[in-house]
Every structure is written in C-alpha cells, then in structure tokens.
Design goal:
The structure holds two protein chains of two kinds.
Chain A lengths: L1 E7 L8 H17 L2 E8 L3 H6 L6 E6 L8 H15 L3 E5 L2 H14 L2 E12 L2 E8 L4 E6 L5 E5 L15 E3 L8 E7 L14 E5 L14 H15 L2 E4 L1 H5 L28 E5 L5 H7 L4 E6 L13 E4 L2 H12 L1
Helix pairs in contact in A: 3-4, 5-8
Chain B lengths: L5 E5 L2 E3 L7 E4 L2 E4 L7 E3 L1 H16 L4 E8 L1 H11 L6 E6 L8 H13 L9 E6 L10 H8 L5 E10 L5 E7 L3 E7 L4 E5 L11 H16 L2 E2 L8 E6 L8 E3 L4 H13 L1
Parallel strand pairs in B: 1-6, 1-8, 6-7, 7-13, 8-12, 9-12
Antiparallel strand pairs in B: 2-5, 3-4, 9-10, 10-11
Helix pairs in contact in B: 2-5, 3-4
Classes of the chains: A alpha/beta, B alpha/beta.
C-alpha cells in the first residue's frame, strides 16, 4: 500500500509552493495510514526539485526531459501513468495546478480508479483517507470518502503548510514514450505593469459595477474610474478582481472599464482567489459575491449603502461613502 | 478555408447563482433543500462552450453542434426554452440528476455512453467541448474523463480562445497560473476543450432559432433515457454551510480624508 505524491517542476526546475503544500498533505496521509510514501516528479530536469524535498523519506521516481518541460495533457498523463504503474498506489496526491488539473482526471480513467479534485483538506481517519472539498462554487463544504482505488486527489493551494526538508534523494528515472499531436508554442504572460490577477499579491482589489454607473451629477465617469483604479494598482501592485456584472456590461453595450475582462471575474462564476487582504469597491449583491470573498482573510469594502446585505456580516469594515472620492484620497496618500 | 467539425458540447443545468442554497441529507446522500423548486440556468461555463461551438460551426460550413446534457428532463425542458433561442444545436438528453454531489466519474461515464449513441457523429471530426468548471460540483474533471473514455487524448483546459488555421490546425489559449496563457497548437480534430469564459458575449435571443431548435429538441427530451448513476461508493459524512459571520464595523459620516487614511494604514500594516 502506497501513497504516491506527484509534482511537476516550474520553468526554473524548482517546485511551486502549492506543490510543497501538497507534499505536506501527502506525507501526513501516508503517516496517518501507516503506509509508504512515493514521490513522482515530472519536468525538464528534476534533480534540483528532488533535492529540495529529499528529506521526506520516500521512494523517488522521475520522468524528465525536454518534452516534459511544458504542461501538455498527453505527456503529463503518460508520465504520471508510468510512475503510478511503477508503485501501484492506493492514493495519488498532487497539487491542483493548471497542469495537473488538466491531466490527472485522465489518470484515474487509465488506472481504473476515481478522482476528486480541488480538495480543501485531506486526512486519515480510522485507517481511511478522508477528503474535504467545496461544492456549488465554495458555497458549502463536504467531507467525503470512497472505496474505489486508486483514488486520485488534487489539493488546492493554501490548504497545508509547505513542506520543508531538503536532502539527498535516490531517484529512479523512468522512460516514457510520448505520442501527441499537440505542440506547446509558448506562454503569453501579463507584464508587470498590466492590471491582472496576481496570485502572490497581498491585496485583492475588487471593482464593482458602481464604478460605471451615473454619479451624483447624473453623468458617468468611466475615464476617471479607470485612472483611479489604475493609479491604485500601480501604487500597490494589488491583484485586480471584478464582479461579473461589471464584466458583462461590455456585452450589454454599456460603458466599460477597458482593462477588465472575464479573466478578472471573481465570485460564483469566476475565481475565488486567496489573498491576505481584500478591498471591495462599488460592489453590491449577495451569494455570488460572498463566494468571491470566501478565502480572503481581512475584508474591507467601500459602498454607499450602510445596510448592504453583501457587506453586513461578510466584511470586517464597511466604509459608507463615495468610492471615487475615497480612492482618490487613498491614491494621494499612497504617493 | 474552413474545416468541418462535429462539436459535442457537454453541459447541464445549475441553480440560478442568485439563489440561496442549503444542503440537506437524504437517503441517497446530500442534496439541495427544495432542489426541484429552485430556478435553474444553463451552467455558465457550459454556456460559454455552447456559444463558442455555435460560433465555430457558423464559421466552418458543414459543422454540427450537439448539446449533450445529463439532468432531470423536466428542468432541462424549462431551461432549454430560453437557451434554444441563443444558438442552433441538437439536444441529446440523459435523464438523471444534475446535482453537484453526483460523482464526477459516473457523470463522465453516462456522458461518454450517451455521446457514443449519437447517430451520425464522426469521432474523427469531433471537438469535445464543455465547461472548465461548473457552478455545481466544480470538479473540472468531467471533460477529461469523457475524452479519455472516448479515446480523445489531445486535451485542453481553461480555454479562452480557439483559432482554426488554414490547414485545419487548432491554436489554443489555455489559462494557467498568474494571469498567463499557454499557447498550444494541435493538428486538428479530435480534441477536447474545457472552456473558461471564451471571448464571446452571450448571443441575443433569436426566436426563429428557438423555434427550429425546439422542433428537434422536444422529441429528444421526450425520448430521454433514464441515466444510472448508482455505480459509486462515494459517501459524504457531512455537507455544511460555512458558519462564519463577521462583526462588520460600519464607518459612516466620517470625512473622506479619515477613511482614506485608515485604509492606507491597513494596506501598509
């Protein structure tokens, strides 16, 4: 009986923080079940990554080479399949990165097992693995288990402490032949100056539809809203989120904030980012917005309605005032 | 120059996102309180996939679009009355639960079996579409498993753009971490795509398209076969709403300067 932990390297051959977090969960599960831990690494060159986690007291497997540098369904799945077949695990644990979220559901099919994704917790109880995850987009959390094996599990970031334990690792290299009609042609990355979701930012700034509505003078002030938001983001390098209603205004022919797209959408139909702090401006609404806040630790909001049902009980501080005026002053103080 | 695609979109219904949801225990596991009474909508990501499919089919003459849906057919019929006005498609229905607590594998198995039964579907021309996520289970795993069960091993997730080249190749932009895209090129069908939001706005209602769709789709709803989703050992020991309620401090009738100063101190703190 084995718990297999899978990870892929980043472009600099290191392991991402979410991969180290998943290793903590996998090791705790293996310890709790009283079973062996195996590590499977995928990447262009996995030597550095193996050394980073060599102290986890596991058997190491690796599939490496240039064709495994980029995330691609066929190659990642073939590599994961080879490593799983080498150690016949009962449970496979991996980080829910975009790369593994793409490939590992297919692994469950190839191994004749089952998959559960985006876990928020993983533990051993009464000799069985027990998983936690959110349903209906972070609106309710379920605790679940199942008998089918192998059970492939991916863990969301921020749900465990990153593993720390460098050491020498004796890695068994596996050879995998990949046949795929897909070629990875590169990345399109946001520049440092672009307003975007920044996963590592300390603050999430959420812009709501109020920024594009008529103000006290009866007119809209979208250019002013854009410059105010841009100035704040430039000063703080915050992550930028948006309510769905603001993004959708473009499809309804309304005035839009030019740099907001569906990529920025947070909430029921968007992302549920994890930042230490969140500042929401001009947002109203109920459940869909609450979902966007779910994993934000400290929450503050600015809007005109002291009785706003979304803010009451959901955020720590509600500033009742004009976001245009308040944010302009905030920008001035930020210099 | 276009290509001819057989586009299969997997998508089901979810409770209207504006509804307050609460779980309850039942003999078959957890479900939503008053589930059948809740107004339903097409899952937002499946909707994006459907609109992208219709757009792709319109640009590539000879292409066809099927919407394959696992859901209770009475609720599906209600939702399809509005969805049918958005884009031309042939509905294929498996009559079963659309609950977020349904096992992802069982859902994938039923969808794969249903797709296998589509008459006239040429799998060599197949583009398998679906949502990258859903507003119910949110596993992001069903499309991959359907593809794998159907032998489709070129797969992409978090897709926002799909461009057909003159040689029939497909250039794909997939969302990855940090607000970035990974660009890939696959030499053509078959391939599977889990859509993020895409780049198309929701199409306006077209009653004429709606009439044409419902003429084909009402028989599909009537003939829908019951789906067996029972082959799972998945068990829930609990499903709970988060209970945390914050003590919100209201800052009102305070000068803008003071509010701004407090916000800046908090950001820097």
């Amino acid at each position: 009986m084995t718990v297999l932990y899978l990870a892929h390297t980043e472009c600099d051959n290191s392991l991402h923080k979410s991969a180290l977090e998943a290793l903590t969960a996998a090791k705790a599960l293996a310890d709790g079940l009283g079973t062996d831990l195996a590590v499977g690494l995928i990447g262009a060159d996995v030597a550095e990554a193996a050394g980073t986690i060599g102290g986890c007291n596991a058997k190491f497997y690796a599939v490496s080479g240039p064709e495994f540098a980029d995330g691609r369904y066929a190659s990642d799945l073939a590599a994961a399949e080879a490593m799983a077949k080498a150690c016949s695990p009962e449970v496979v644990v991996a980080p829910a990165t975009s790369r593994f979220s793409r490939a590992l559901p297919g692994l469950a099919i190839r191994l004749g097992g089952r998959v559960d994704t985006h876990l928020s917790g993983l533990a051993a109880e009464d000799g069985k693995p027990v998983a936690k995850r959110w349903f209906y987009r972070q609106r309710m959390e379920g605790t679940l288990t199942r008998d089918e094996r192998p059970w492939v599990l991916t863990l969301d970031s921020g749900c465990a402490e990153p593993f720390a334990g460098a050491g020498a690792a004796d890695v068994e290299a596996l050879t995998v032949n990949v046949s795929s009609r897909t070629k990875v042609a590169g990345m399109e990355c946001a520049s440092e100056d672009q307003q975007t979701i920044r996963p590592d930012a300390d603050l999430l700034f959420v812009a709501g539809a109020g920024w594009t509505k008529k103000q006290a003078d009866g007119a809209t002030h979208v250019p002013e809203a854009e410059s105010t938001i841009r100035a704040f983001l430039d000063a703080t390098k915050s992550s930028l989120g948006s309510s769905k209603s603001l993004v959708d205004i473009s499809g309804e022919g309304g005035a839009v904030i030019s740099f907001l797209t569906h990529m920025h959408q947070v909430g029921q139909t968007g992302a549920t980012p994890r930042h230490p702090k969140g500042l929401s401006t001009c947002c109203h609404g109920e459940e869909p917005h609450v979902v966007g806040w779910r994993f934000i630790k400290e929450r503050r909001a600015i809007n005109l309605d002291a009785g706003c049902g979304w803010a009451q009980g959901k955020c720590d501080v509600l500033y009742v005032g004009d976001a245009f005026a308040i944010m302009a002053k905030v920008n001035e103080l930020l210099g | 120059m276009g290509s001819e695609f057989h586009i299969v979109v997997c998508g089901s219904i979810v409770p209207d996102p504006l509804q307050t949801l609460a779980p309850q225990d039942g003999p078959a596991g957890p479900s939503l309180k008053n589930e059948m009474m809740l107004p339903a909508v097409l899952d937002p990501w499946a909707g994006h996939a459907l609109f992208e499919a219709a757009n792709l089919a319109a640009k590539n003459p000879g292409s066809q679009v099927w919407l394959v849906s696992l859901g209770p057919k009475a609720k599906l019929q209600q939702v399809m009355m509005s969805v049918s006005q958005k884009a031309p498609f042939q509905l294929v229905v498996a009559d079963g639960s659309a609950s977020g607590f349904t096992d992802a594998y069982e859902t994938a198995r039923v969808l794969a079996e249903t797709i296998e039964g589509i008459g006239g579907l040429d799998k060599s021309k197949m583009l398998l579409f679906g949502g990258w996520q859903s507003a119910s289970r949110g596993s992001g795993a069903v499309i991959q498993m359907v593809g794998e069960l159907l032998g489709v091993t070129e797969q992409f997730q978090g897709v926002d753009r799909l461009t057909v080249g003159g040689d029939g190749s497909l250039e794909v932009l997939e969302r990855v971490e940090g607000g970035a895209y990974q660009k890939s090129v696959v030499d053509g069908a078959p391939a599977a795509f889990g859509w993020a939001t895409g780049e198309l706005p929701e199409p306006p209602n077209n009653p004429q398209v709606g009439m044409q769709n419902m003429q084909k789709n009402m028989p599909a709803l009537m003939q829908a076969k019951p789906a067996d989703l029972s082959g799972t050992s998945l068990k829930f020991s609990s499903v709970e709403l988060p209970k945390q309620r914050r003590e919100t401090r209201i800052v009102k009738d305070v000068p803008v300067d003071e509010m701004a100063k407090e916000i800046v101190e908090w950001i820097k703190g």
